[in-house]
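Dock zinc ion; give full complex structure.
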Amino acid sequence: MSDRRLAFIYSPEMEVLSYPPDCPFKTQRTGLTRQRLRSFGLLGCEGRREVAAREAALEELRAFHTDRYLEALDRASRGDLTVEGLHMGLGGEDTPVFKDLLAYGRWAAGGALRASDVLLGGEADVVFDLWGGFHHAFPEHAGGFCYVNDVVLACQRCVAAGRRVAYLDVDAHHGDGVQAAFYDRSEVLTLSMHESGKTLYPWGGAETEIGEGRGLGHNVNVPLPAGTYDDAFLRAFDRVVMPLLRAYGPDLLVVELGMDTLAGDPLTHLMLSNNAHVDLMTRLLGLSRPMLVAGGGGYHVENTVRGWALAWRTCCGEEEDHDLSLGLGGVMLGSTEWAGGLRDPVRPVTPEQRRAVDAELETSLETLVRLVFPHHGLGEAGQAGKAPGGAGPGGAAPKG
Ligand SMILES: [Zn+2]
């Protein structure tokens, strides 16, 4: 148990909005996670409350998106897909046109803005907004099930409130829309750990894309080879991401916690277990900064729900799995493979997998250390140097 105050963004209005039935993006994941948490007694109690989302005004979406794009989204929602809309990416296989398209985007954006306000107002220490995380949306382009970029809007809101923001994206896909939004700015440090663009959409996110102008060194991509396993993921996090977070010293963290990194996801090729997310969240909580956790991807619904519920439980400071031998409130777990609780079993790693992942990953990490660390006053081992910067607030012990 901890006295950390958690909030979970939830509105029944969002339950009725959904993508087309044949689309892999399943909006019911948030409601299922909520049910799971409530059945564990981890939500809806002292210090772990639900907070209602709201539908963002179109005006609020204009902070990132253009008028003609919003007009195209509105028309497409009404079944009017124009040539201009097609050029903006609407109507593709991963960007279907459907009735709730704009409404969903507005609610997701409203949820992210509400989550930001809860953190900025000091009403909670960690806010989960699992409806959101649409990191592939650009000012005038949709992509990868994303139409309205709620996480960019959340970062912008926090920057406007004078906060220094670190955005960490651990979805299997590169956070290209967020990268583009802040590529030449230093008020947001964007870090994306994702399956390499050699094997996965959106085919970019190389370690050499490090920002430009004032943002030079403030865009960090950690491409993970297909087959990346828990220890390799955490090694990359500890070697590159953690020293940068410490050096940057953010006031606030925005995390895109896509669960499509888990082994068994039908769209990706990473091999994480959700135990990695426990270790990840524990490290992030150790920074003692307000944290917004957005949902993002995750196309194996049951694994995604368990991963998110486990991440929430980690934030609650609770470690042990409950006794599930009797099922949950009379309903047995959906997963027949593993009914031992929220945690996955430890996944074995084959020597071939290790060989395939380790060498390529090490090369990327070395490149990042060489290209990015100097911009943050970090030495090769990730220790704070003399100038510029040095260890940020809460940075304390350098990590070797
Ligand atoms: Zn994804």
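Observed: Residues 351-371 form the longest helix (21 residues).
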